[in-house]
Amino acid sequence: MAEKTKYDICIVGGAGHVGLPLAIVFASKGLKVLINDINEESMDMISRGILPFMENDAEELLKEAVKKELIVCSSDPKEISHSASVVITIGTPVDEFHNPVHTAIKGCLSPLLSYLQDGQLLILRSTVFPGTTEWLDSYLRANGIKMKVTFCPERIVQGNAIKELQSLPQIISGTSREAELAVEKLFGKISPKLVRLAPIEAEFAKLFSNAYRYILFATTNQFFMMTNSAGVDYHKVLSGMKEDYDRARYIPGPGFAAGPCLFKDTMQLAAFSKNQFSLGHNAMLVNEGLVLYLIDELSKHYELNESCIGLLGMAFKADSDDIRSSLSYKLKKLLSFQAKEVLTTDPYVTGDKRLLPLDDVIDKSDILILCVPHKIYENIDLKNKPVLDVWGFFQKGLLKK
Ligand SMILES: NC(=O)c1ccc[n+]([C@@H]2O[C@H](COP(=O)([O-])OP(=O)(O)OC[C@H]3O[C@@H](n4cnc5c(N)ncnc54)[C@H](O)[C@@H]3O)[C@@H](O)[C@H]2O)c1
Q: What is the C-alpha separation between 220 and 226, in angstroms, rounded?
């Protein structure tokens, strides 16, 4: 590797939800970042200082970094050779059998092998199946490449990455002491605290963080369905439980537990444990089943085949434009079989041509379902339409006007 490199960091997958905020934060500390991605449209936007998705506090920093040429986009793999370190932030999905796509990392790196350099620092940041980091180290060595291989999981919550990257402790791990030291030096520039684990421990720590949250959401969703079926207001129960009672403080409210991470990472652990992760599987049944439960509840009060149903919020979570694995779309699909018509709206989602303006959906619908509690919905006029609101956002109970 050349002594003076052109870039401090190259982020493969750097136009995505994990890669781009990381690029922005490193650039804000004066590091020169190369973004390598297969999404040319997003790369073009980033090169013009435009965020391809919503991310708080990121836009100004991106514009500044692009202006100072601290963020550069190129899909030319040759450029990767000129970076001191290479970070991998590509997606690591599960397949149609809910098993991890083990080929994701290999598929990304194999075309890049001839551009990777001995001595470069490699940081795996995507969430991976336990054992992937050690496998990657052996794979590179088998191909004659001696990189410093590390795994440093991303633990931010999407939308708050800029703040959290600079406030959360960063778990770091490496396959050698040399790799650990190199990655400590790099993350020491942005993270307030470094937590050192072995690669397999760090891989489990990341997956457990997501599975635990998914199970927490399932717990509250199950409590919600239990009380609601008994005619009891769960939101009242929950607020009573939590009032000045520290041990109940962390119980979340009920709602759609969706998105690109929690479900699939719980399924990665299920696959790892040879389908013996009963808590994880049960969480999946509850969280995915909530949507079916709501349809059942609706059908007790309305003739669905005579009703036009309006869905408010199609993103996977509040104040986001991201529809990946959004349960709003599952609800829409299932209702489409039963309802006269299903109308959808979202203030932030782009690219779904079937979305209508909020007022049109409220006017035309017989029943509304709050799928995502975007803050912007706080003071909207629901025009006295009945609303199914599992979140307790409108403070009116599940199905009251
Ligand atoms: N989204 C989150 O909040 C979050 C949080 C923590 C961890 N993670 C993990 O981070 C990883 C990335 O998630 P994400 O939400 O950023 O996904 P994403 O889809 O937003 O970003 C992935 C990016 O990788 C690019 N890409 C795919 N294959 C590529 C290739 N061969 N070469 C170059 N670029 C390629 C895509 O075009 C995309 O821009 C996943 O493993 C996820 O589980 C995500």
A: 10
Assess if residue 12 is contained within a domain: yes
Please answer whether residues 112 and 34 qualify as being in contact, where contact means their C-beta atoms are separated by less than 8 angstroms: no
**Residue 138: which CATH number?**
3.40.50.720
Using one digit for the tens of pLDDT, what is the confidence trace for 224-233? Answer: 999 999 999 9
- The per-residue pLDDT for range 179-233, each reduced to its tens digit, is 999 999 999 999 999 999 999 999 999 999 999 999 999 999 999 999 999 999 9
| Atom of ligand 1 lying closest to residue 161 CA | 3
Q: Are 380 and 393 a contacting pair, CB within 8 Å?
A: no
Mutation test residue for ligand 1: of 103, 261, 322, the one with most atoms within 8 Å of CB: 261
Q: Work out how many domains the chain is built from and give that number.
A: 2
Range(s) of the domain holding residue 339? 212-388
Sign of CA dihedral 266, 230, 327, 22: negative
CA-nearest residue, atom 10 of ligand 1? 126
Q: In percent, how much of the chain has pLDDT > 90?
A: 96
In a domain, 51, yes or no: yes
Please name the residue ranges forming H helices in 89-243: 103-109, 132-142, 161-165, 177-187, 199-229, 234-242
Q: Does 136 lie in the same domain as 51?
A: yes
